[in-house]
Amino acid sequence: EDSSSIAEVSRETLRLSDVGGLIEVKRRIHETFLDPIAHPEIAKAFKKSLGGGLLLYGPPGCGKTYLARAIAGELGASFISVTLADVLSKWLGESEGNIHKTFAEARQKAPAVLFLDEVDAVGGKRSSQNSQSLRNIVNQLLMEMDGVGSDNDGLFVLAATNMPWDVDAALLRPGRFDRMVLVSPPDEPAREAILRGHLDQRPVQGIDLEVLVRKTEGFSGADLKHLCDTAAEKALAASIKSGAVQPVSMSDMNRALKEVKPSIGPW
Ligand code: ATP
Fold first, then answer.
1. How much is the ipTM here?
2. Which molecular-function annotations from GO does this UniProt entry contain (predicted)?
3. Which DSSP symbol is given to 169?
4. Is the CB of 204 under 6 A from ligand 1?
């Protein structure tokens, strides 16, 4: 397998309407990104540039990747995901060339969303790479970004970070990732959608979603998954012990709630 090649992906079918809650986040994504792309003539009249990318920032496990996929779905685009921290560690001295290759391949698959996860990794503050090689990587990214969004280009670049303060300042200038959207921890409707997603595929009985939603303030998407997995483990253990399926109950959920705590602080 050619490890420097980006993954083959099909056209994304997820839509923003599949993302539960987060009304304000979705409104910002429409206003700053999707709507101008959908109405290029109006955008032009207002001197709104269609170039550059969108940076999603916020605590880990709160759906940035999920939202990015939904944005690709809205654009009728393919979704191509690259984790920049992996690029640095895997490709060592060849990072610039591979960044170029990744962008070139994404352009070939246009319309495509290229998703750069952990974009802070090239900011230098948390990397062990020497600063010159990081500068080269950032410069390569800037060069690629400067060609994004021109007419009929069909390449859309999204980036994500949990550490917006570590993102290289040059990447945030106009024409680059100049639009930023905070993806905060899931609100009540989002938590309901996430919990539903994890419980729907399991035998459950007497689950009061409304109560769970209220008790999980501050939980990330990843925490909610952990909570449901923990409760399911308890029901599974009881089922094995009794020799008959014991559906996940509210008491399993409450016991899980004693063990699983939110992993993120206030944002
Ligand atoms: P991040 O990229 O912010 O670290 P993530 O994109 O990996 O996070 P999680 O928040 O861990 O996403 O979500 C994991 C899964 O939970 C998603 O793949 C999706 O199935 C579900 N999920 C997350 N947020 C929502 C939401 N708002 N509505 C519905 N399902 C969601």
1. 0.94
2. ATP binding; ATP hydrolysis activity
3. G
4. no
Token digits of residue 114? 């290229």
Q: Is the CB of 193 under 6 A from ligand 1?
A: yes
- Asked if residue 189 has its Cβ within 6 Å of ligand 1, the reply is no
Which of 101, 116, 70, 84 lies closest to 4, judged by CA?
A: 101
What does the pLDDT look like over 166-206, one tens digit per residue?
A: 999 999 988 889 899 999 999 999 999 999 999 998 999 99
Is the C-beta atom of 21 inside 6 A of ligand 1?
yes
| 151 Cα: distance to centroid of ligand 1 (angstroms) | 32
Question: In what order do the strands lie in the sheet containing 112-117?
Answer: 78-83, 112-117, 155-161, 54-57, 179-182
Rounded CA gap, 267 and 264, in Å? 8
Strand partners, 65: none
Instruction: Yes or no: say if 78 and 107 are a contact pair by the CB < 8 Å rule.
Output: no
Task: Measure 250 CA to ligand 1 centroid, in angstroms.
Answer: 23
Peptide bond into 164 cis (omega under 30): no
Ligand 1 center–CA 66 separation, angstroms: 5
Query: Whose CA is closest to 48, among 69, 64, 32?
Result: 32
Distance in angstroms (rounded) separating the CA atoms of residues 24 and 223: 22
Q: How far is the CA of 63 from the centre of ligand 1 (A)?
A: 4
